[in-house]
Structures are given as structure tokens and as C-alpha cells.
Amino acid sequence: MTQALYRKWRPQTFDDVVGQEHIVRTLRNALHAGHLHHAYLLAGPRGTGKTTTARLIAKAVNCLAPVGERPCDQCEICQAITAGRLMDLVEIDAASNTGVDNIRDLLEKVGFRPAQAQYKVYVVDEVHMLSTAAFNALLKTLEEPPEHVIFVLATTEVHKIPETILSRCQRFEFRRIPLAQLVGRLQAIAEAENIQAEQEALDLIARAATGSMRDAISLFDQMAAGGDVTADYVRLMLGAERREVVQSLLQAWLAGDLGAGVAVINRAVDGGADPRQLARQTADFLRGLLLMRLGAGEMWTDPTTEERPHFQDMARAAKPERLVAAIRLFSQVAAISRTGWQPQLPLELAFVEATLTPAPPAAPAIAQPVAAPPAAAPSAAPAPAARRVRSVQPSARAHTSTTAERAKEPTTAVEVSGAPASAEVSPELLSAIRERWRQMMGHIQSVKLAALSRDAQIAGVDSAGKLVLLFQHSFHRDNVNQDDNRRMLETLLSETFKQPIYVRCMLEKEWETQSKKAAAPPPTDAGQPAARSRTTTPPEPPPPPDDELVRRAQEELGAVPKFSE
Amino acid sequence: MSSNPETLSGWPIVGHEWAVRQLQLAVTHDEVPHALLFTGPESVGKFTLARTVAAALLCKSDAELPPCGGCLSCRKLNSGNHPDFLFIEADAKGGALKIDQIRDVERFLSLTPNESRCKVALIADFERATIGAANALLKTLEEPPGYAHLMLLAQDAELLLPTIVSRSRQIGLRPLGRQQVEEALIARWAVAPEQAERLARISGGRIGWAVRAVTDPAYQEQMEQALTAMLAVLAQDLPTRFETAQEMGRDDAHLPETLEYWLTGWRDVLLIQTDNAVKMTYREHANVLEKIAAQVDVARTLAMIQALEKAQQALQRNVNTQLLLENLLLDFPGL
Questions:
Q1: Within the 78-137 window of chain A, which residues sit less than 8 Å (CB to CB) from chain B?
Q2: Where along chain A do its domains lie?
Q3: Is A340 in Cβ contact with B267 (below 8 Å)?
Q4: Whole domain around residue B77: which residue ranges?
Q5: Average pLDDT score, chain A
Q6: Which residues of A touch B271 (CB under 8 A)?
Q7: pTM of the model
Q8: What CATH number does residue B102 fall under?
Q9: Interface contact A390, partner B, CB < 8 A
């Protein structure tokens, strides 16, 4: 049974170690000067050389050759370590032996002098998995081990190591190995193993490895098992798509062509593309476009000189906000794994959403009405507006649209332009309050209050200049009218709109019996899409209650009918 | 597992030719990696392929391409009592793969083989391994004894610790093409062409589902019921929807599948709305789905699909099913 390439090609001397020059240099210097630490911590991403270096340290401190040549990989000690049979090199898998008893066993034997070599080296791999008790048991010995003992701890998750351990070790941070060095090593291996490999293929493999040498070699191993390593084969295996596919997808996005985009996705996936990989590539491409759009196009190194002008045109056709929103959507697809029946569905959804939504609304200045910003692409109005027949609006959950969710994001500081300084509630302020109502509910400390007030209607202003909130049921009104609750609302309103606002809670019935003053919603209201904050009922009489269901829903569930245009 | 392959193409696997070729070459050249990771959606063939490789490794005959299916080893494997083969899977539905199970694997692999020349441990559902369990496997996965082979099955490599994936040879299986499934159903399971076309289309490339649907009519019935229910809900008024939610909530064993069927249905609506109707799954219901597509707008369809996905996620987190359904059904448009 042959070994996996990454095992066969594990570096056996410092010279062969790739990508961690800073570490190798330090270790070599320490060796020369005879300044060995008794405890090392090797930390870094997977496949970057930690276990390899740990073993090399063991070799170097015990090697029989003169100091300048260590480790020689020829002497008895070095050979024994390479073969994995040196008794004085104790490798412990901390992930399987996580308990304090395991550590205690180990520590019992620490005092015994080495059998063959000069130093006894304990390599504790995956050390982050030790239990807290195990860590603590290790502390004393780690601080002052016997003079013939060296500890080498290795981990991918240094943040899980207690400070007390960290402070007792000399720490080496392994970094992700740069692309060029990965490719170089792969080339060397390909030559030595007599495997034909295209340069572009190696490049693709190295990219997919994201800085891990073991990943790169493993991937290469896998590709090589299928014969010659060609770029096409690698792309097929990685599910990577040619850039042209990503381009046509984004052309469709720019043109607002839903049909074309969904077709591109389906074609690619049928042809073997991996949807998430495609999403990742799309997000990368969009990022490149964004860089170009922001004037930092040189940072996008992928395109060739011939391609650049074309991509520039694409970049110019898209607004930065739209690019950002699209990047987010596609990145999410790449990040989340969907194990359902339709693996391409998340990608399709991301595309449709990216195409439908215009740029996300910036925090609206108070005085301005909410208008769907005209986007370059012909897009449908935000989802709530486009909702058709909905005979009942059951609950606040109705707003599953993205705009509602985005409206909940903490916006930048509230702009108060043109809000009157007096305590009067102007019509503009009123409409602003209506728009932001839902969003404000998200900021109320008390969940209960938020739930009670969320569906309150903002009727207008009463004669005393107070903001009037209408409720369907006395239960809601009474609760919100309680002093602390009401005050909480008033504080929130006042702080948000930078002027004192007082609140009066009434039942809808009561309000209607009063004369409708400026309570008629200001004109800007009617033209807006079904509001961000809530679906305001236009000032029309409710439908005749001859529809049994509607009447029941209104009475029993507090539903508010909404009419479509 | 069927037996007696006579030729190089003789493994009983539908599709995944590149993987089969790669592994067959490895088997015949005695170069099977010590750690194999099979990834792909459920029922796409991971287990069948892994088991075949295991059988090939353990087979005692001199067949040109093992497994032979006839020798003592192959027969013991078939009947599930081969001493050099260990199969581990997560407990029950939704359960996790625990560290003790991994320790069992390590113990199993630490002993030399009884009968065959190697030992094979096959661990399914690895994405459900606890963090402790996954970490515990790392060292063994990296440098197991020379006679040991580990095979892991998982839905998606990205769900696993990168340190696990890094140590394994990944065989990423993707859903099969419709035609492949169709042809296989006709050739191997003697399914009528029309039925085969339909099942192949609905299976979404999951040969396992298609085969199960052939052998177990309840599967298809369930799907039809789910679709009928969905169409019914659209026409239902509010109180009736609450009743439906209650009914469905009682039968929550089938809920995950139901949600998948609904998701597929709504995706069909989206495809219709984006002029991609040719890619529809439930072609038999094209009329109704087209009607829905005409009455709802794209943004609404999008919202509906998102709501279904959220419901699926919530289901995995053990939410109260009735509440979940009520919420979901309320989101359905009223047509």
C-alpha cells in the first residue's frame, strides 16, 4: 500500500520546509547558539508544517552530526525519527487523550532520562483539545521540566490555549504558505514522481489549497490519480467554472434579466459545476468589479490586459451599493452549506434577490419621503409593495422581505434635517415616525412593549400636540398607556427625532369619533409603497363585515385588512 | 451490494464514472489511500461506493477486479459479520457521532487484521461528529497503521473540520444527471420508461431516492400527498390553515421531506416566472404551478422560498412543530 503523497513528501530537513523561513531561521540560530527553550508552541493553520517542524526539532536537538549540519537525516537518531521508532520522541495525540489522567501518566515518566538520545522530546499535537484540568496538570512541569526534556506543543486553535500555558512557551506562528511557494513545491513533487502537470493546473490547485501545503499536495495527489494533471480536469474536479460563466451570470444581473441568469446557473450546474464554488467565484468577481468601481482596479490581479476594459465597462454599469449587496448575497451562499434536494437553489435565490433589489436604502433623512431608489437595473419595487391580494395581515412576521430586514439593521446616526425645534409634531415628522416605527420597535428594550406597540397605528396629532397611537383592543392600549411603558416610548421617540414627543394612547373607535383634524395622513403617505414600518390602512372605512372571515379575523385576531391597488 | 463484476466496469455503481475509475485503478494497483472522504448529498451513492471499495480491499479472491462477491470474505461482508470491517454511524435520527465511537474505531484499527490483509473502518454521517469526536480522529487519520483504511462519509466537506478534510483523499460525488438515473432505472431495476423518466426527474440526481421510490410505493405517495397539501393550503382560509397546521404537526416524522417537496414546488414556480419552466421538476403539476406563478410576483416567490428554508432550519433546532407550521402556512399567499 503506497503512502499518500503528503506523507511521503513530508520534509525531513530544515531545508525542505517551505514557507516558514522566519521560523526555520530562528530555530537554526537557537541551535547554533545552543539556546534551546524547554517548551515550544507551534501555532497556525492546518497543513503549514507544525507536526513536521516538531519532528525536525526533535531531530535537530538529538542529531549526532556537528551543530552546523543538523539535522543530517543520516545518523542513527535521525533515521529512527524518520521511521517513527525513536523511543525518546514521544508523540501524543491530545485530541484522543484529553483527560487529566492521561497527562498525569505522561508526567510520571518525564523524570526518566532518555534511552538513546540526548533529549527526550514530547510532541503534544492538537493540544487545544486538552481539558482544563489536563492543562493545569501540565503547568508546573511545563514551567520547569527536567533538563533533558523538551516539550513541543502544536495546535491549529491557539485561542483555546490558556494564557498560563502560552506564557510558558516560546511561540512560533506558522503562516499560510504563499501561492508561489505552493506551486514550486508541487512542481518539484510532480517532477520527482514523474507526473505530467500543466502549470495552470498547479496554479488552480494551489489556489484551492488556501495556504495549506498538505491540502495542496493532497489535492494534487487526487488529481494525479486520474492521469495527467490538466487544467480542465482540475477545474472539473474542483467544480470550478470558467470565468466566462461567471461573466455571463453577472451580465444577466446587470441587465436585470432573471431568465438568463437562472438559465446560466442551471446550465453550469448540470454541466458539473459546484453551486457553492460558483457562488464563491461570483463573489470574487464582484469584488474585483467593486475594486475597479472604487478606482482600485490594480488590486484585482486576475484579469488579463485584454479583459480589463471589458470588466471596466461592467464595473461602471453597477452602483457600488448594489455591488456590495450582491457580494454579500453570493458570499452567504458560499458560506452556508445546504444539504437539501436542490443544491443550486441558494445560488438561484441569491441571483434573483440580487437582481430584484435596488441598492439598499441609506438611512433616510427625516424630511424625505421613502422612495424606492431608481436603480440602473429595472427592478421590481421592494417586496412589500408588490404583495398582491392578502386578505389578512396576521402578524408582524408578515414582513419576511429583505427590505424589512435591512430596515432593522442599525443604521447610521439618525439624521435630523429640518425637524422643527418646537414640540410640535409636523406632518413631515409624522410621516417619518410612521416610516421608522417598525425599525424603532427593534430598539425598544422591552420585548413586550415592542410587541404591543408594533401594530399600533399612528393616527396623527391631537389638539395638545401629542402623538396619537391607536390600538384595536383596550388590552393593548391600557398596557402601553402604563406610565413606564409610555415613558419608554416617549423617550425613544424624543431621542430618535431630537425633540420632545409625547404619546397618547387611544382606541381606534375613540379616535374616529373625534373630528379628524390633520389626522388625515399627509399626502406623501398615500404614494408610498406599503410602508417600511407597517402597512398603514388608508383612511377608508373597513370593509363591510358581510365577509364572515374578515370580520372574525378582525375581531378575534386583531387583523387589519389591507387593500391592494 | 450486488456481486460478480466480470469486467473493469463491473462495480455496481450508477454514475460517478470518474470516481469509480480512480478507485478501481487504486484497487488494482494496491494504491488505495489510507483515508478516503466521500462527500455528496444523501442517497447519491456514497455508501454504496465506499462499501464496494471496502469489499475490494478485503476480498480474498484473485479476481482481476475485486470484489468477487463469492469468497468467504465477500460473503461475510454481505451478511454483516466480517471481523476486519467496522461500520459506525450516528445514533438515531439527528443524533451525533460521539467520541466514544471514535475510540472504538481506534481500538479496532490498532489490532492487526484477523482474516484479510487489511482492516477497514467506515464512518457515516461524519458531519454529525461532535467536535471532540472529530478531533479525536485526527492523529489516526493522519498516520494510521499500514494495514488500516478509514472511509468517512459526509454531506459536504465544508461541514467538517478542515483538519479532517486535509488528511483525507476527497471523493466528491455530485448529483447524477437525469438521464443517467433514468437509464439505470430502466436497465437495472426494470422500470417502465415513463415512470423512469418521472422518477429520474424528481430525484434530482439522487439514485438512492429513485431506487427507494421504485421499491416502496409509499415514497411516491408521500410526495403526492405533500404536493396536494401545498396546493390546498393556498386556497384555504385562515382558520382552515390553522387546522391544517395542527394535522401536519401531528405527523412530524415526515415533515422534513414534506418541506423539501414544497421547496421544490416553489422553486418550480420561480423557474416558471423566470422563463426557465423547462427545468421544472413537477411537470405533472405544471398547470397548477403555472397558475400560481401568474398570480404571485417574483419577489413573493422569493420570500416564500426563504420562509421555507427558515422553517427547515428551525425544524433542525427542535422548534415546536405546530407553531412552525402555523407561521409557515400563514406566509402562504391566498389564491
A1: 84, 93, 95-96, 98, 125-126, 129
A2: 5-173, 179-238, 243-356, 407-557
A3: no
A4: 17-172
A5: 78
A6: 262
A7: 0.63
A8: 3.40.50.300
A9: yes
